Amino acid sequence: MFPVPTQVFLTRGVGVHRQPLTAFEYALRDADIEQQNLVTVSSILPPRCRLISREEGVPTLAPGEITFCVMARADTNEPGRRIVASIGLARPKDQTVYGYISEHHGYGMTEHQAADYVEDLAATMLASTLGIEFDPNAAWDERRKLYETTDLIVDTLSMTAAATGADSGEWTCAVACAVFRFAPLAA
């Protein structure tokens, strides 16, 4: 059995190349996680998992390490096509309770639209787990205010990579990741 992650950091990157795999590699380089053997996992933020900065997290990575992450990835070779890859986090106030990570990859959205979308997804999943009653058809801004007043959700945040397909028709790849780390818990 694997240990439970104790830290997570968010990162993003964009790459462009005539080969789709190389564009993906360049996006991972831009995100500073290209030397990892990435294993994508689903979207639970473990209890007591501390959010750290990319600058804190990247130096803890070892080349070739099997590294667990939640990843969003979007690719295009259509000139001018807008792509987004976005990760959202919703963390409960009670740190003994798990939170949610959402991922979205798509076309046509702006960076801001994608960020709001994944924060909404993560917060909605967490709210339903915590038993917060809400109108699923209400706008994200309305639900965000409701979540803030319940005092059960501490915050939501997101990381988005947005790009426009290269004019040359080369492949453009955008990635956003929540990368898990297994540092010992502080006493």
From TrEMBL:
Q: Does the keyword Zinc apply?
A: no
Q: Kindly give the Pfam families that the UniProt entry links to this protein.
A: PvlArgDC (PF01862)
A GO MF annotation of the entry reads: arginine decarboxylase activity
Principal EC category = lyase
**Do you know which InterPro entries this protein is assigned to?**
Pyr-dep_his/arg-deCO2ase (IPR016104), Pyr-dep_his/arg-deCO2ase_sand (IPR016105), Pyruvoyl-dep_arg_deCO2ase (IPR002724)
For this protein, the Enzyme Commission number is: 4.1.1.19
Keyword annotations of the record: Decarboxylase, Lyase, Pyruvate
Q: Which family does it belong to?
A: Belongs to the pyruvoyl-dependent arginine decarboxylase family.
Under HAMAP family, the record lists: PvlArgDC (MF_01404)
Which NCBIfam families does the UniProt entry name for this protein? Answer: pyruvoyl-dependent arginine decarboxylase
Protein's name in the database: Pyruvoyl-dependent arginine decarboxylase AaxB
Q: Which organism is it from?
A: Rhodoplanes azumiensis
